[in-house]
Amino acid sequence: MKLTELFQKKEFVITSEVGPMKGCARNGRQAAFLKEAESLKDFVHAVNVTDNQSAVMRLGSLAASVLLKQAGIEPIYQLVCRDRNRIALQSDLLSACTLGIDNVLCLTGDHLKLGDHPTAKAVFDVDSVQLLDMARGLNQGRDMMGRDLTQSTGLALGAVVNPNFQPLDLQLLKMEKKIEAGAEFFQTQAVYDPKLFETFIRKAEGFGVPIQYGVVIIKSPKMAKYMNENVSGITVPQALIKEMAGVPETQYKDKAREITARLVKEISPMVQGLHFMPLGWPDLVPAILKS
Amino acid sequence: MIGTTKKPFPEIMAALEGYQKVAVVGCDGCAKVCLTGGTDEVAALAQELRAQGKEIVFEACPERTCNVVKADPVLAPLADRIKEAEALLVLGCGGAVQITRELTEKYGITVPVKTGLNSVGHMDTLIGGTLAVEQCQECGDCILNETGGICPVTKCAKGLLNGPCGGAEDGKCEVDPSRDCAWILIYKRMAALGETAKLKKFTAPKDYSKAAKPRVLHIKEGRVA
User: Fold this and answer.
1) Does B1 touch chain A if contact means CB atoms closer than 8 Å?
2) CB A111 to CB B157 under 8 A?
3) What is the pLDDT of residue A290?
4) What is the pLDDT of residue A282?
């Protein structure tokens, strides 16, 4: 099922995200990421599968996406430009479609320096805009060199955008290029400031492409501080950190639910969907959606 | 220039193990600017090697060791001395080392040619004797005309051609917060020129065949093959 079909039906599209583990999933049913996805199955339309997230080597996102699909969960196969050249990227897109994947999220990818193989050779043969353009070409039945495919792909193409980015106009310029290159829906980076999100959405809504608000659940004041210091492109306001720190540790989870539900309630009317990155607290997603 | 740094002395000693008589060849071009292989550094390293019991056959420092036009006239008259040496140690870029080896072969001498430096890229000097930065990858397909004279291939850690990733904070690169985000620099420059609209144009994937190694430059024809 393509996410684009849901957006066309004016569904409010809810997705979550899982990260494959560092290890083989030969006994796929036991894999933690699959269990996490299964726990969310009834509450979301689809689940992103990250591609060697944070440049940490793990099980491949295509294999993990296929396992989700086999378990009856709609995967959004994430594909980054960091580790593959243009031949491998196109080949993987053909493989994904062949194996039943309908949705792909095209990203640049975190830099190697931030991961667990910092001495590896970075590829970045193409960027995310060029990857989208390539993927659209495959959907239209030709490779990037203009050669015909025996069968074209039929992938819904997603992309990401960071509303926290300054200058915002530069991020919007790239977003526009992604749309022109074939992006059909967007998932945003985590945003904790509704005002900032509104400024972004007022400028981006004119592009006419569905946008899902990205939600990363803040689990503790320590995690918020860690994100501010170590995760690029995300800012957790001090007021939120204080609010969380104001309750005993045993109540962090309740507070996390309350804060996230508040943000979701405020921002939902501005967007066409939500994308949860629950980071180990998937059980909060249903509660947040309910409230 | 080609930037160079000195290899650690123990690594140099390991490379010279078993060779008692050593000749040291520097470069009074780029390596001189980098304070790694000019006449002064050659003399200093020769002294260190003597202190470790090596016999220094000669010290030489062509103006540009990577250029046969400069290196040959200095080394050819030393051919007999080169024959005496059990190894040559070159304090120059990887090109200088290989030109020196090629010259020894041309003189009919089979002698190990070792390097005392690591080459670290095409560098532009910002503060003489202090600071140089890498700004060009010699990709063979220059796009500076489209990017406000700032190269994203080199200055963006991911070499992105169609705008920034989402990771910059306070204008700094996510990979190294001491470094400016190349795309924010490009955007500001284009804004100052009143040309940000030009950045909306899709840049196609680079033609890396133009950077396929090893390239040969036919200077008279202006042709790369």
Assistant:
1) no
2) yes
3) 82
4) 78
| pLDDT score at A207 | 97
Domain range summary for chain B, segments of one domain joined by +: 2-121, 135-203
The widest CA-to-CA distance across chain A, in whole angstroms, is 62
Nearest alpha carbon to residue A196 among A164, A155, A159, A238: A164
**For every residue of chain A, which 3-state class applies, written as one string?**
CCHHHHHHCCCCEEEEEECCCCCCCCCHHHCHHHHHHHHHCCCCCEEEECCCHHHCCCCCHHHHHHHHHHCCCCEEEEEECCCCCHHHHHHHHHHHHHCCCCEEEEECCCCHHHCCCCCCCCCCCCCHHHHHHHHHHHHCCECCCCCECCCCCCCEEEEEECCCCCCHHHHHHHHHHHHHHCCCEEEEEECCCHHHHHHHHHHHHHHCCCEEEEEECCCCHHHHHHHHHHCCCCCCCHHHHHHHHCCCHHHHHHHHHHHHHHHHHHHHHHCCEEEEECCCCCCHHHHHHHC
A149 CB burial (10 A radius; 0-12, 13-18, 19+): middle
Q: Counting every residue, how long is chain B? A: 225
Give pLDDT tens digits for A133-175.
999 999 999 999 999 999 999 999 999 999 999 999 999 999 9
Alpha-carbon gap, residue A225 to B225, rounded angstroms: 53
CATH topology of domain A3-218+259-283: TIM Barrel (3.20.20)
Dist CA A124 CA A147 (whole Å): 23
Instruction: Name the helix (H) or strand (E) containing B118.
Output: strand B117-127
C-alpha Rg value of chain B to the nearest Å = 22
Choose among A108, A167, A181: nearest Cβ to B187: A167
Q: How far is A233 from chain B (nearest CA, A)?
A: 5
The whole-angstrom distance between B166's CA and the closest CA on chain A is 5
User: Nearest 10 degrees: CA dihedral of A258, A264, A266, A269?
Assistant: -150
Taking each helix axis from N to C end, the angle separating A238-245 and A221-230, rounded to the nearest 10 degrees, works out to 150
**Euclidean distance between CA atoms A114 and A117, whole angstroms:** 9
As a dihedral over the C-alpha atoms of residue A48, residue A53, residue A56, residue A60, rounded to 10 degrees, the angle is 30
- Name the strand (E) or helix (H) holding B212: none
Chain A, chain B: beta-carbon pairs less than 8 Å apart: 96
Per-residue pLDDT of A168-181, as tens digits, reads: 999 999 999 999 99
Residue A40's pLDDT is what? 93
Which of A161, A166, A177 is opposite residue B162, by nearest beta carbon?
Answer: A177
- Which option is the CATH number for B2-121: 3.90.930.12, 3.40.50.2300, 3.30.530.80, 3.30.420.40? 3.40.50.2300
Quick one: pLDDT at residue A278? 78
Residues of chain A with pLDDT under 50: none
User: In A, which residues are within 8 Å of B153 by CB distance?
Assistant: none
